[in-house]
Amino acid sequence: MKTLILVSFLVIMSLAADFEPVKYKACRSKFTVKSVEAIGCPKDPKQRCIFKRGSEPIIKIGFTPDREVDALTTKVRAKIEQTFTEFNLENTDACQGQNITCPLKPGQLYYYTQSVKVVPEYPTVNVLVNWLLNHPSTFDDPAYKDEDGKRNLNDLCILFHAKVEE
């Protein structure tokens, strides 16, 4: 029931809210990223998105998969100074309640929508947001790793600048 209410809320908010384009960089994505938009961003995409502490901004990512995908996991990190800190998401299953339903078909355009809580404890600071969507099986897939065994490829990976404010 909670999931249904959250899905309904996100759908209503995405229809009523003003999404603005976000200046982003795709970072070694297998999927093709078509667009990134968010609530809380200025109309000028060259400026940072402003995320207020205590708010729950919503991001919308348009993408096309390169293959059929039956599951996707979400991870959101913020780079503050030189360290990435992971955001705590209530739902990391991108196929449940995020405007997409798996399986996803290759070459078809999808719009993934997700909110993220900016808790009052977060510092007021400029951040680099790293948004990732990956099939769970890719975490152990050698094709997604470099010769040192470090992950260097994702199904979907974007970076964008934001600022956490009071």
TrEMBL record:
Its main location: secreted. GO terms for cellular component: extracellular region. It comes from the Eukaryota. One of its GO terms (molecular function) is sterol binding. Keywords: Secreted, Signal. Belongs to the NPC2 family. This is MD-2-related lipid-recognition domain-containing protein. It comes from Bursaphelenchus okinawaensis.
